[in-house]
């Protein structure tokens, strides 16, 4: 929904005009500037490529035809009047490529003539008085290398999307679209699904012994046979497990080795865009889009540093402030002598940028809880704790490993106890203490019982938002600003959908489009090729490569192949025959695939345009008779919000329903 444009204030002649992207950011910055400044918002982009046509002259060095969108025209007109009266124009959009492009587009949209109007570009990593004052005192020119990198990405994505989409319309059905990064993301989901389909589970067994010393019980796992470490999949059947149990019959369990050592655990680095999205997904159940929206709000209110970054660097000022806060609030034993610095591992990371951190380390989440809504508070709390923890001492554990001989086998028990919390005091991690009784070599232990257990290897898990973003980052696909939009796009275009476990599965449309692109346009969905293009965008941003030759090297072969495939590739027939007859004209009904899934249509189209929904598959039975009526088998059902429950198909005569699986009575009620 378009943002409602506010009435622009009048500006007295001689004042300096500061232009940012959002009204929230404008309000925050205005608090730090004096009466000589007026801070206004552009409400995002003021120029873009037209939606109705390609807007790129492929015959003339890919020159773009930018326009001012209708929704931005009123605001541009207002800003233009302000710019004419101001003594100085300060462009203060974000510090990344997108922000640099917004600043550049503003100069054209507002008709700013640098020769006649004094124009400056300022950037800052955080919205604080110190950062703003420093930026005002150290302006620079617009960085055309960053602008060109943004233009190159925008133009290349437009060429791929606008030229490939008609191919998909012609060969599959109308309404489809392709994209350079989104198509690779869909391919990852499709490839993983096929891995799962091809997977053959392998049986294996584990054996544990519950042992006792002085009425203190603990568990030890089978570790060796004849001094050879057993592989996880070593025991392949119940028969092999039973043979081992036979060997252990009447065995004496004797402690042969006790090893105690101190182990230390480092905290995780401060957040990057990717790691924040992953952690917010796993700990807060926030989607990538929601996380970025909340982070943007926190940034614009001045609470955190810039939220689009792939660097784990931290400023010296923030490190000094963190040490002071930790010493005063947790004690000197928790602070570091020297700051801990982390090395960025992401491909193509911008080392000059900073990680995501609180702008004031001393500002605890509870200090601003009244100024944030519940979701903003949780995200700030996560960012604040991660940053403070990364500058605290390591957590220290007392670890004990005990080997226990039984016949020709060795069982092993591991125990860990926290000796010093360190960073865990601020950023609790998944760690459960396992306390063993006091054991010494030659102790004879009492066997309580042997615990054999059957297992099966499992296929690789489907991607969730966190793991898909992690894979994109590891492969150099996209950059911090693209992860969330990519995840959103592949869902809104119905190429992938989330199952009940919030994991991605390809739709039939996604499978069809992926297979077609993989066969005929392999470079578009090739992970390595797409990563290489990202690296070339980075080289444009660094001034090492010119954007026009870069686009030309891709577009020439791509367009030639497209023209060839448009003629030679046959239309994909996804229709399915049915036994149903059209009630309007009597011709057979067929099942067709559309943008939103399957639907039934008359084969007499376009003479007969009858369509209707495809009957859904019947609910899946769990193989248990209803405990209330005894007539029907319980089936899996879904609420309107897709939550699973178990119910009797005889409803309303029988109203049996349960949130938990009745075949597993030990399970607790779900949320």
Report on this model:
By secondary structure, this protein is α+β, with helices and mostly antiparallel strands. It folds into 6 domains: 16-142, Rossmann fold; 155-199 and 464-568, Topoisomerase I, domain 2 (Orthogonal Bundle); 203-266 and 395-456, Distorted Sandwich (Topoisomerase I, domain 3); 285-390, Topoisomerase I, domain 4 (Orthogonal Bundle); 576-613, no CATH class; 621-658. The chain is built from 16 helices and 23 strands. The strands form 6 sheets. A 6-stranded antiparallel barrel has the order 7-8-12-11-10-13. It has a 4-stranded parallel beta sheet with strand order 2-1-5-6, sandwiched between helices. Strand 21 (633-638) and strand 22 form a beta hairpin. Helix 3 (97-109) packs across helix 5 (144-171). Residues 1-7 and 665-671 have low confidence and may be disordered.
Query: What overall geometry do the principal axes of the alpha carbons give?
Result: globular
CATH class of the largest domain: Mainly Alpha
Helix segment count? 16
CATH superfamily of the largest domain: Topoisomerase I, domain 2
Q: Could you tell me the number of beta strands?
A: 23
How are the strands ordered across the major sheet?
A: 7-8-12-11-10-13
Arithmetic mean of pLDDT? 89
Number of domains: 6
| Radius of gyration, whole Å | 31 Å
Largest sheet: 6 strands, antiparallel, barrel
CATH architecture group name of the largest domain: Orthogonal Bundle
Helix content: 25-40%
Strand content: 15-25%
How far is the first residue's CA from the last residue's CA?
32 Å
Report low-confidence residues grouped into runs of 5 or more. 1-7, 665-671
Structural class: alpha+beta
Q: Which fold name corresponds to the CATH topology of the largest domain?
A: Topoisomerase I, domain 2
Keywords: DNA-binding, Isomerase, Magnesium, Metal-binding, Topoisomerase, Zinc, Zinc-finger
Domain Topo IA-type catalytic: 143-562
EC number: 5.6.2.1
Organism: Candidatus Terrybacteria bacterium CG10_big_fil_rev_8_21_14_0_10_41_10
């Amino acid at each position: 929904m378009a943002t409602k444009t506010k009435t622009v204030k009048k500006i007295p002649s001689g004042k300096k005009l500061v232009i940012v992207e959002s009204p929230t950011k404008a309000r925050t910055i205005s608090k730090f500037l004096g009466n000589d400044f007026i801070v206004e918002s552009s409400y995002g982009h003021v120029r873009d490529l037209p939606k109705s046509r390609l807007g790129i002259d492929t015959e003339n060095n890919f020159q773009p035809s930018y326009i001012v969108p209708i929704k931005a025209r009123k605001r541009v007109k207002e800003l233009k009047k302000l710019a004419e009266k101001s003594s100085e124009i300060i462009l203060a959009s974000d510090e990344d490529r997108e922000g640099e492009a917004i600043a550049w587009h503003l100069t054209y949209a507002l008709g700013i003539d640098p020769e006649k109007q004094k124009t400056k570009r300022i950037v800052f990593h955080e919205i604080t008085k110190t950062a703003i004052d420093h930026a005002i005192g150290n302006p620079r020119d617009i960085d055309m290398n960053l602008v060109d990198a943004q233009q190159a990405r925008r133009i290349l994505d437009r060429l791929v999307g606008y030229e490939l989409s008609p191919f998909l319309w012609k060969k599959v059905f109308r309404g489809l679209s392709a994209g350079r990064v989104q198509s690779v993301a869909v391919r990852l989901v499709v490839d993983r699904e096929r891995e799962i389909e091809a997977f053959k589970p392998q049986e294996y067994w584990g054996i544990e012994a519950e042992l006792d010393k002085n009425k203190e019980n603990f568990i030890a796992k089978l570790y060796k046979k004849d001094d050879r470490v057993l592989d996880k999949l070593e025991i392949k059947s119940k028969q092999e497990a039973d043979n081992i149990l036979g060997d252990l019959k009447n065995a004496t369990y004797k402690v042969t080795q006790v090893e105690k050592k101190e182990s230390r655990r480092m905290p995780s680095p401060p957040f990057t865009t990717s790691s924040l999205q992953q952690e917010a997904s796993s700990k807060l159940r926030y989607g990538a889009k929601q996380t970025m929206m909340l982070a943007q709000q926190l940034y614009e209110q001045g609470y955190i540093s810039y939220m689009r970054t792939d660097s784990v660097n931290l400023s010296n000022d923030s490190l000094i402030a963190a040490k002071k806060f930790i010493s005063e609030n947790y004690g000197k034993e928790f602070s570091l002598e020297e700051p801990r610095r982390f090395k960025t591992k992401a491909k193509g990371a911008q080392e000059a940028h900073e990680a995501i951190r609180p702008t004031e380390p001393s500002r605890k989440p509870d200090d601003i809880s009244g100024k944030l809504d519940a979701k903003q508070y949780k995200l700030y709390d996560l960012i604040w704790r991660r940053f403070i923890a990364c500058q605290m001492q390591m957590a220290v554990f007392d670890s004990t490993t005990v080997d226990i001989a039984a016949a020709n086998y060795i069982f092993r028990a591991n125990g860990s106890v926290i000796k010093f919390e360190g960073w865990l005091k601020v950023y609790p991690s998944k760690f459960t203490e396992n306390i063993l009784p006091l054991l010494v070599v030659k102790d004879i232990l009492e066997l309580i019982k042997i615990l054999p257990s059957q297992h099966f290897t499992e296929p690789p898990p489907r991607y969730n938002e966190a793991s898909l973003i992690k894979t994109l980052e590891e492969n150099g696909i996209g950059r911090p600003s693209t992860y969330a939009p990519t995840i959103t796009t592949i869902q809104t275009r119905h190429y992938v959908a989330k199952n009940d476990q919030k994991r991605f599965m390809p739709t039939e449309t996604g499978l069809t489009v992926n297979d077609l692109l993989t066969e005929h346009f392999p470079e578009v969905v090739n992970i390595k090729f797409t990563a290489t293009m990202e690296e070339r965008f980075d080289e444009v941003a660094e001034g090492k490569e010119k954007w026009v030759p870069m686009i030309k090297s891709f577009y020439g072969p791509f367009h030639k192949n497209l023209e060839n495939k448009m003629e030679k590739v046959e239309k994909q027939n996804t229709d399915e025959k049915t036994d149903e007859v059209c009630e309007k004209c009597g011709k057979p009904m067929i099942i067709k695939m559309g943008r939103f899934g399957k639907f039934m249509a008359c084969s007499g189209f376009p003479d007969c345009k009858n369509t209707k929904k495809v009957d859904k598959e019947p609910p899946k039975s769990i193989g248990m008779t209803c405990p209330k009526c005894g007539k029907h088998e319980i089936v899996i059902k879904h609420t309107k919000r897709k939550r699973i429950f178990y119910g009797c198909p005889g409803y309303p005569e029988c109203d049996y329903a349960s949130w938990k699986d009745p075949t597993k009575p030990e399970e607790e009620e779900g949320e």
